[in-house]
Amino acid sequence: MVGRAPQDWSQLYRILLRLLCLLPTGLPVRSVDFSRSTDNITVRQGDTAILRCYVEDKSTKVAWLNRSGIIFAGQDKWSTDPRVVLEKRNELEYSLRIQKVDVFDEGPYTCSVQTQQHPRTLQVHLIVQVPPKISNISSDITVNEGSNLTLVCKANGRPEPLITWRHLSPSDGDFNWEEEYLDITGITREQSGKYECKAANEVSSADVKQVRVTVNYPPTITNAKNNEAATGKPATLRCEASAMPLPDFEWYRDDSRINNAQGMEIKSIGSRSTLMVANVTEEHYGNYTCVATNKLGITNTSIYLFKHDLPTIPNPVSEGDPTDHFNHKGPGTATGENGSPCPALSLWLMTASLLWLLCKC
Ligand SMILES: *[C@@H]1O[C@H](CO)[C@@H](O)[C@H](O)[C@H]1NC(C)=O
Ligand SMILES: *[C@@H]1O[C@H](CO)[C@@H](O)[C@H](O)[C@H]1NC(C)=O
Ligand SMILES: *[C@@H]1O[C@H](CO)[C@@H](O)[C@H](O)[C@H]1NC(C)=O
Ligand SMILES: *[C@@H]1O[C@H](CO)[C@@H](O)[C@H](O)[C@H]1NC(C)=O
Ligand SMILES: *[C@@H]1O[C@H](CO)[C@@H](O)[C@H](O)[C@H]1NC(C)=O
Ligand SMILES: *[C@@H]1O[C@H](CO)[C@@H](O)[C@H](O)[C@H]1NC(C)=O
Ligand SMILES: *[C@@H]1O[C@H](CO)[C@@H](O)[C@H](O)[C@H]1NC(C)=O
User: Fold this and answer.
1) CA-to-CA distance for 201 and 158, rounded, in angstroms?
2) Helix, strand or coil for residue 19?
3) How far is ligand 3, taken at its centre, from the CA of residue 153, in Å?
4) What pTM was estimated for this model as a whole?
5) Which atom belonging to ligand 2 lies closest to the Cα atom of 84?
6) Among the atoms of ligand 3, which is closest to the Cα of residue 137?
7) Dist CA 138 CA 22 (whole Å)
8) What's the pLDDT tens digit per position in 121-132?
9) Per-residue pLDDT averaged across 262-282, rounded?
10) Interval between CA 290 and ligand 7 midpoint (Å)
11) 300 CA → ligand 7 middle, Å
């Protein structure tokens, strides 16, 4: 465009000469210096452009031209475009006002001023700017882990907007991709989340849109622990699995599936499942299996419910003895640490006996 400018001007000028016959006969066309640098006028799409032009003498013949022809010749409007008017704030002004400028208005404009002695042209290059606007972006998508994915973001604007992709969640700070197309080969579950496309040019603030990428993967058990419970007490077994889509859970006791009816309740919310036993009896102790399933796979783990003897009251004296935890008796017994009668009780018995003996006397 810029490189072709001198040619444009000469074309315009010839059109002018042909149509207006303003040039005094004999004055050669090449006498106008077409290589002179032109002024740029930058206007945003939708705004009004005013291309200024002044004459020295109000009797001078003047005209405005654009690439396709004459817009105004003197006071006569040749253009049929209602957005175009002359702006004459005084006798010597001959400016062109273009309302609601659009991209097709961009290009060279010439104000041609004809005097007997020397023709003069004012050349203006109208540049129309358009704010960046994302015109097409991939919709939210779900893919399986390991597959290849291409996200696309197309934007319009003048100058051509710079397009940048960014992974938003989980935040992936340094990831920035300057391309309309974002290719992800062998996508991982960590690459799921929101992707942001930003289209920016210097005209106005950037246009930003997001795409949500969901990566499906088969379940893996992330948390499952054995537990212990006393008879007559409630017990809970927990199982947690990572999966997308979220897993379905099933519980098995040895080989048989557990359902809610057997005094047990299964509650599964999101990636967690719990098996609750309201009132533990001897038959409840044993091996359970938590099975997590989604459409991409199945996995299981075994969780053991151990018997726990009642009750566990920490005994400071026996803290160092690991066997004590399981063997020690409840507080109702009068048996001491090593099985011998409690010293306090012995003392009391001895005193009582003594008193009894004394009374007898
Ligand atoms: C007009 O804009 C073009 C780029 O569009 C630039 O190369 C040229 O230098 C500008 N001319 C002036 C006079 O600013
Ligand atoms: C300039 O010319 C183009 C065609 O090249 C035309 O569509 C446009 O309306 C013209 N602009 C004005 C302001 O007349
Ligand atoms: C957006 O791009 C896709 C693929 O390039 C195409 O199939 C779709 O028709 C486009 N949508 C619009 C609104 O341009
Ligand atoms: C993903 O792209 C890689 C490299 O371009 C290619 O080797 C592989 O076969 C593609 N995988 C799928 C599932 O299309
Ligand atoms: C638990 O079950 C036993 C035996 O069936 C029963 O005696 C006891 O009352 C139950 N306890 C509770 C809290 O339901
Ligand atoms: C529980 O059962 C599974 C198989 O169902 C077995 O692999 C595992 O060893 C058992 N655990 C115990 C503690 O018996
Ligand atoms: C648990 O998985 C093993 C092998 O992965 C399988 O043999 C077994 O049948 C599964 N158990 C259940 C209860 O699904």
Assistant:
1) 7
2) helix
3) 10
4) 0.69
5) 13
6) 1
7) 57
8) 899 999 999 999
9) 93
10) 10
11) 6
Ligand 3 pocket check for 188: Cβ under 6 Å: no
156 C-alpha to center of ligand 4: Å?
Answer: 31
Q: Which residues of 321-358 are buried (b: 16+ CB within 10 A; e: fewer)?
A: eeeeeeebeeeeeeeeeeeeeeeeeeeeeeeeeeeeee
Which stretch of DSSP H or E encloses residue 242? strand 235-244
Kindly state the tokens that stand for 163.
């397009």
Q: Output the CA angle 296-297-299, nearest 5 degrees.
A: 155
Check if the beta carbon of residue 223 is closer than 8 Å to that of residue 247. no
Query: What amino acid is encoded at 347 in this protein?
Result: L
Q: Which domains does the chain have, with CATH numbers?
A: 6-129 (2.60.40.10), 138-216 (2.60.40.10), 225-307 (2.60.40.10)
Q: Which residues, 6+ apart, have CB-to-CB distance to 308 below 8 Å?
A: 228, 229, 230
Give helix then strand counts, H and E, for the chain.
3, 23
Residues 6 or more apart whose CB falls under 8 angstroms from that of 353 comprise: none
Beta-bridge mates of residue 70 = 65
Q: Please give the distance, rounded to the nearest whole angstrom, from the Cα atom of residue 202 to the centre of ligand 2.
A: 25
Looking at ligand 5, which residue's alpha carbon is closest to its atom 6?
232
Distance between CA atoms of residues 71 and 15, nearest Å: 12
Residues in the chain: 361
Can you tell me which atom of ligand 6 is nearest the CA of 289?
A: 5
Query: Using CA positions, which residue lies closest to atom 1 of ligand 3?
Result: 136
Per-residue pLDDT band for 264 (boundaries 50, 70, 90) equals: very high
Evaluate whether 5 touches 125 at the Cβ level (below 8 Å). yes
